[in-house]
Design goal:
The complex is a heterodimer of chains A (255) and B (377). With 255 residues, chain A is an all-alpha fold. Chain A has one domain (2-176, 211-251). Chain A is 79% helix and 0% strand. Classes of the chains: A mainly alpha (255), B alpha/beta (377). Chains A and B meet through α1 and α5 of A and α4, β5 and α5 of B.
Chain lengths: 255, 377
């Protein structure tokens, strides 16, 4: 566990020193845009627009950080051969992958918490008070980030950063349409197509489970069951994808 | 006795189980393992294939066997592309063997417990450039289970020892190649390993850096550690190593203790004559002696020590002035070149051959200034 934590801290340190927290500035700019520029145009719906923009921005900025940092996290180590130094130490390859994952997750969690605090502060300043639905929707979205970080690490263990980034983005988009995939599978005439779409429905993460943002923007609280279900699902899906990452990384050779 | 590294039967290329492995082991290897101490590194009949252009099967290693006995310094020599780095990377578990047996302290390289006793410096190391030297050593210490107080103490010691104290808190992106190499050695030794594997440890170092690495390797040997290192620099190998294994074209072409290898091989010498009598060069050439001119000097090759002594005496008698006598090739270099050439590999002074420039420079430095009356050898 000490070794996993050491790798995680090192990954976190890399992100900090690469000024990844500048992403927060991007989020702040988005909030200013929403609250100061778009809200006055929204005919009394300004606060709702800020909530909506803020919550979507949370996920978008986190996803961008995941793609830019996470997708090259393992591959960069292989290309620069830093992995040779680390893996010559008494550390298992599985520990290395888990450390990388936890380090990126720590980084994202800090950014995510800061962004949530910023959003709540802006909403309070706009006279929205302490907006509980927004806080809970943000918390639920964290499950999406937990899964997408695992997806990014998975692709990073087996392909180049560029391809890995594109695939992570593709999984994110597909993950929001798994319900449609399921519906398509049920209605497909061809058994082959039905089987294929059903398989894809199970392979891609069901990210809509974590999406209570639209409702929260309208002041509706997310259902309590979503949290327990979401936490279990995120845990299982992430465990499975990390297991896959470890299996692939264990088979990799370093020339 | 258990063998847990995945192996294949080298004759049939089929995977075999543990029991079969033990019974199929060559008798010599089984005997060594059974009666003597387990060698920290033991490699037997290692083969490695990869797919080349158009999917053509290329055999990078053709049955390499070597041992790094405990407490000894073993040198792994060979021209470029001979298979040294591939062998080391298989030993470290970075690459998989197509077949053969690799053992670290008698166990599997995939076992982290084996690697806890190992320190490794890769060729042309590259570290996390956002870390400082101290942070890197601390990270390596944590990964090797070194206690916090020991990490601080040892980091300080190794930074000082490697001449990097002034740069301890400098980000590694500001380090020169030589500084990274020295830091690489420090990170390999932070946990005081029993076995140290170094891939081209002298590469990228200035003479001071080389001297530092040589001293560290000698200290490790005195401490009783086992060292296995690959190098192109034959004089370093001759000075530091107890044993050498020469690889060429993916096969071991020469192996043994340095003392044995150089015992029955005489060095070639070069005699430099500064006051040349007319017709001397022609007279020597007529006798089949290799002669070359360098400005006003004459360079005469002597194939061995006896010939060198005879020639020097003869030249002095004839009134020639001996400017210098220096070994042209060390015995190890001669053995190396002969073995590599016999294997059909490159063995010259061009790319692919050993770096012996230091040998000649060093040898000349010891012979010069000019000896007028005889040899310094």
């Amino acid at each position: 566990m000490t070794r996993i934590f050491a790798i995680a801290i090192n990954t976190w340190r890399e992100a900090i020193r690469d000024r990844i927290y500048l992403a927060l500035l991007g989020f702040a700019a988005l909030l200013i845009l929403a609250s100061q520029v778009l809200s006055p145009l929204a005919l009394g719906e300004g606060t709702r627009i800020t909530r909506d923009f803020g919550l979507s921005g949370l996920v978008l900025v986190s996803l961008l950080v995941t793609i830019f940092v996470g997708t090259g996290l393992v591959q960069k180590e292989i290309e620069r051969k830093t992995v040779m130094t680390i893996l010559s130490k008494p550390i298992g390859r599985g520990e290395f992958v888990l450390g990388k994952y936890l380090g990126l997750l720590m980084t994202l969690a800090v950014i995510f918490i800061a962004m949530t605090a910023l959003l709540l502060a802006v909403l309070a300043l706009r006279g929205d008070g302490f907006n509980q639905p927004v806080l809970l929707a943000a918390l639920l979205s964290l499950g999406e980030i937990v899964i997408m970080t695992g997806v990014a690490i998975f692709f990073s263990t087996c392909t180049s950063p560029m391809l890995s980034g594109m695939m992570t983005l593709a999984v994110f988009v597909a993950g929001h349409f798994t319900a449609d995939l399921n519906a398509f599978a049920e209605q497909a005439a061809s058994p082959l197509l039905a089987g294929l779409t059903a398989a894809l429905h199970w392979i891609f993460p069901n990210l809509e489970l974590f999406n209570a943002r639209n409702a929260a923007a309208h002041g509706v609280m997310p259902e309590a069951v979503r949290f327990s279900l979401g936490a279990g699902y995120a845990l299982l899906y992430t465990a499975a994808i990390l297991l896959g990452s470890i299996v692939i990384f264990r088979r990799r050779e370093f020339r | 006795m258990t063998f847990i590294h995945p192996i294949h039967d080298t004759r049939t290329s089929k995977r075999v189980d543990n029991q079969t492995r033990v019974t199929n082991l060559p008798k010599s290897l089984s005997t060594v393992t059974a009666i003597g101490p387990v060698a920290p590194v033991s490699v037997h009949n290692l083969r490695r294939y990869y797919r080349g252009r158009w999917g053509k099967k290329v055999e990078a290693l053709k049955g390499v066997s070597l041992e790094a006995p405990a407490g000894q310094v073993t040198g792994l020599l060979g021209p470029n592309g001979a298979g040294k780095t591939t062998t080391l990377r298989i030993i470290l578990g970075m690459l998989r063997a197509s077949s053969g047996i690799v053992r670290l302290f008698g166990g599997s390289v995939n076992d982290p417990a084996s690697r806890k006793r190992l320190g490794f410096l890769t060729e042309q190391p590259y570290f996390y450039d956002y870390l400082t030297a101290r942070e890197l050593l601390d990270l390596c210490g944590v990964l090797c289970d070194v206690a916090p107080a020991d990490r601080r103490r040892r980091s300080g010691y190794w930074l000082e020892r490697m001449g990097l104290s002034h740069a301890a808190d400098l980000r590694l992106r500001k380090f020169s190649k030589g500084m990274l190499q020295r830091l690489g050695l420090a990170q390999a030794l932070i946990h005081e390993p029993e076995l140290v594997i170094l891939d081209e440890p002298m590469s990228g170092l200035d003479p001071l850096g080389r001297s530092l690495v040589r001293d560290v390797i000698l200290e490790l040997k005195q401490r009783g550690a086992t060292v296995l290192f690959s190098s192109h620099v034959l004089p370093d190998v001759e000075t530091l190593c107890d044993r050498v294994t020469v690889v060429a074209g993916g096969s071991v072409v020469l192996e043994g203790s340095v003392a044995d290898l150089v015992a029955d091989t005489d060095a070639e010498f070069e005699i430099v004559v500064s006051q040349v009598s007319p017709g001397l060069a022609q007279a020597l050439s007529a006798r089949g002696i290799a002669v070359a001119t360098s400005g006003s000097r004459l360079l005469i090759a002597a194939p061995d020590r006896a010939a060198m002594n005879r020639l020097v005496a003869e030249l002095i008698r004839d009134g020639a002035e001996i400017a210098a006598v220096a070994p042209r090739r060390s015995p190890l270099e001669q053995r190396f070149l002969a073995a590599v050439r016999q294997a059909g590999g490159s063995g010259g002074m061009h790319d692919g051959g050993p770096d012996t420039s230091d040998a000649r420079t060093a040898a000349r430095a010891t012979v010069e200034p000019v000896s007028r009356t005889g040899t310094d050898q």
